[in-house]
Amino acid sequence: MFAHCVHIDDTDRVRLAAAGSAVAFCPDSNMFLGSGLFDLDAAWRYGVSVGLGSDIAGGTSYSPLYVLNQAYKVVAVRGGRLPALRGFYLATLGGARALSLDHHIGNFTVGKEADFTVFDFAATPTLARRTEIAESFTERLSALMMPGDEQAVAATYILGRRVHERRPSA
Fold first, then answer.
1. What is the total count of domains within the chain?
2. I need a surface site. Which of 81, 91, 93, 122 has the fewest CB within 10 A?
3. Any idea where the Amidohydrolase-related domain is (predicted)?
């Protein structure tokens, strides 16, 4: 597992892919530090496994939604697009594959560990409005990804057991 990889070239990408290595894409820390912008599209073009990373030592947030929002911006600044489904892939199954844990976690396949987050698409007025007008599931995910806000987290489960539940505001 390599982190950041903001200063690699195509030769490096070929070697990473050939070695079966993976990259932790840490957009928040890279933007905070001004250290460079990871080229996600090039990594995928060369078959490099990529997962989303927060790197809180150099970043500003543990929130996967916030980091997804930052990933969207990094890809956009580089002239690409990060559709919501691809973004959530990075944060779920993509991360699990990057760590070679995809046979245990990363999606809802029967037999895998049930680690997941429940989202409230009406958690804020803006999110409620965006999801209300969404015409597809992908648009709903995009509405969730764009604010990058953990207010949408209603509950968190680890191994199928609820470990966090947001309390209704008074």
1. 1
2. 81
3. 1-158
Q: Which two tokens stand for residue 145?
A: 């990804």
Q: Please name the residues in contact with 58: beta carbons below 8 A apart, sequence gap of 6 or more.
A: 26, 29, 30, 32, 33, 35
Q: Is residue 170 part of a domain?
A: no
Percentage of the chain beyond pLDDT 90 is 87
Question: Tens digit of pLDDT for each residue in 36-57?
Answer: 999 999 999 999 999 999 988 8
Answer yes or no: are the C-beta atoms of 67 and 81 closer than 8 Å: no
Domain annotation covers residue 43: yes
Number of H helices, E strands in the chain: 8, 6
- Greatest Cα pair distance, the chain, in angstroms, is 56
